[in-house]
Design a protein that fits this description.
The complex is a heterodimer of chains A (about 375) and B (about 130). Chain A has helices spanning about 10-15, 35-40, 60-70, 115-125, 150-155, 205-215, 225-235, 270-280, 330-335; strands spanning about 5, 15-20, 25-30, 45-50, 55-60, 80-90, 95-105, 105-110, 135, 140-150, 170-175, 180-185, 195-200, 220, 285-290, 300-305, 305-315, 325-330, 340-345, 345-355. Chain A has about 375 residues and is α+β, with helices and mostly antiparallel strands. Chain A is globular, with a radius of gyration of 21 Å. The longest helix of chain B has 11 residues, at about 120-130. The chains are: A alpha+beta (about 375), B alpha+beta (about 130).
Chain lengths: ~375, ~130
């Protein structure tokens, strides 16, 4: 049985194409997904992300407990700031990638992916045992609405008295938006400036409507999961289930920087990750740009002289580059030699390896 | 709701066939319903060369959108006599004008088509799916 966010009726009245995503009925697109993508790059887009999970970790030792449970060093995070981090299993495999917000001295909010938050909440509850810290999964109470794009700050500023100029990237502040109490975070998954607004379910529809109205003249449009996926891909951001899985360590994914061996004490997965860091990786996550117009997609083989040397994890036509792009795990040896192709339904289509991200916004 | 012109024939694979009553050359495209399901079309390819012969049901090409790729099938057997170069250059025509400028290819019919649907039958098919 599929679940719905508090905004489902709004999406239906906007004529959205709905799709099942991790057991949720979510808007895939409202009209043209390319137009939605471009609106986020040039003006702003409005997203319903209420399927994401919000797990609160509260207590005098909440920071130390998260240091033990996650790969990051969360006890040193300043109140009001956020960090991208991961939860791994004992063998170093990624269970989820997370954004952790420190709301207060003794209060953290862990934002997890829709497909994983139930597992993350269970693991956290298990891992914080023995610390003065309590884990509460409040995903069912919270909706999440994001405004992303270069004009998002001016749109949001008209609806809130929170000082957005003072709100840095990866920071969070409680405030009131259009009469609604909200946690206002300057985070996102698009490669643009933008905000994520955490509100109680009953406030989601009025908040959405106020933002849609306030942003209309600035070019704000509702944007679906299709645009979200192409935006994050251009920004080189991994998606759990594509680039990340329990079979992959943060080092495999080129995200070893999130693993903080320098923090005090042990953490779940530490021994395995030390070995992974020591041994290096056989395959590396890289960006590919296709020379032709056919699109490398999730699961397609990367080849070199007919031999399989890797696998595409995500691929899409890129609006910003005008060519198909992909992320793929490719053998180090093949990367050194070059001359790579992707097997697109039996035909070897040449690709070039590029540094990630594909797209970086101008500051 | 997408439009379904009365004067065309349809396939279960969401293609339309025009000109069948003349019995010579038919034009083939994908329906507005299919175009809506696909989203923005970014790539169109018809594999056979002009002049080659295809059988009804052959996979003869592909339509690729942001999220997916779908095969194009020959709804009738015969000789491919024309491929729409405009839609290959500008695949968005499939979305913007599926029954007009977004046509895909023309076939000189050599094999009696089977199992084509009327507009009413195709309407029933798609209302069942949506």
């Amino acid at each position: 049985m599929s679940r719905s966010t508090p905004l489902r009726g709004v999406h239906e009245s906007l004529g959205a194409t709905l799709t099942d995503f991790a057991g949720w009925q979510m808007p895939l697109r409202y009209g043209s997904e390319s137009a939605e993508h471009n609106a986020v790059r040039t003006a702003a887009g409005l997203f319903d992300l209420s399927h994401m999970g919000e797990i609160f970790v509260v207590g005098a030792q909440a920071g130390e407990a998260l240091d033990r449970a996650l790969v990051g060093h969360l006890s040193v995070l300043a109140p009001g700031r956020a960090r991208y981090t991961m939860i791994v299993n004992e063998t170093g495999g990624i269970l989820d990638d997370l954004i952790v917000y420190r709301l207060d001295e003794d209060q953290y909010m862990v934002v997890a992916n829709a497909s994983n938050y139930a597992l993350v909440a269970r693991e956290l509850a298990d891992r914080v045992r023995g610390y003065d810290a309590r884990v509460t999964d409040r995903s069912d109470e919270y909706a999440l609405v994001a405004v992303q794009g270069p004009r998002s700050a001016e749109i949001l500023a008209a609806l809130t008295d929170a000082d957005l100029d003072d709100l840095k990237y990866y920071a969070i502040v409680p405030g009131v938006v259009a009469g609604t109490p909200a946690l206002i975070a300057r985070t996102g998954y698009t490669g643009e400036d933008g905000f994520e607004l955490f509100v109680l379910n009953e406030h989601a529809v009025p908040l959405w409507n106020a933002l849609a109205e306030a942003g209309r003249d600035a070019g704000l449009v509702p944007a679906g999961l299709s645009a979200r996926d192409t935006l994050r891909l251009e920004a080189g951001m991994p998606l759990y289930g594509n680039e990340l899985s329990a079979a992959i360590t943060p080092f495999d994914a080129g995200l070893g920087r999130v693993v903080r061996f320098d923090k005090p004490g042990d953490f779940v997965g530490k021994a395995a990750l030390e070995r992974a860091a020591e041994n290096g990786t056989r395959r590396r996550l890289v960006g590919l740009v296709a020379r032709g117009r056919r699109v490398p997609r999730h699961g397609y083989s990367v080849t070199r002289e007919g031999a399989v040397v890797g696998e595409v994890t995500s691929g899409a036509p890129s609006q910003s580059l005008g060519r198909p792009i992909a992320m793929a795990y490719v053998d180090e040896g093949a990367l050194e030699k070059g001359g790579l192709a992707v097997d697109i339904r039996g035909s070897q289509e040449p690709v070039d390896v590029v540094d990630l991200p594909f797209y970086r916004r101008s500051k | 709701m997408s439009t379904i012109p009365d004067d065309l024939s349809y396939t279960k694979e969401h293609e339309w066939v025009a000109g069948l009553e003349d019995g010579l050359t038919v034009t083939v495209g994908i329906t507005a319903y299919a175009a809506e399901q696909l989203g923005d079309v970014v790539y169109v390819e018809v594999h056979p060369e002009v002049g080659s012969t295809v059988a009804a049901g052959d996979a003869v090409g592909e339509v690729e959108s942001t999220k997916s790729v779908s095969d194009i099938f020959a709804p009738v057997g015969g000789e491919i006599v024309e491929i729409n170069a405009a839609v290959v250059d500008n695949p968005s025509l499939v979305s913007s004008d599926p029954y007009g400028e977004g046509w895909l290819f023309r076939v000189r019919v050599e094999e009696e088509p089977e199992d084509l649907l009327s507009a009413a039958e195709y309407t029933a098919l798609t209302s069942g799916e949506s």
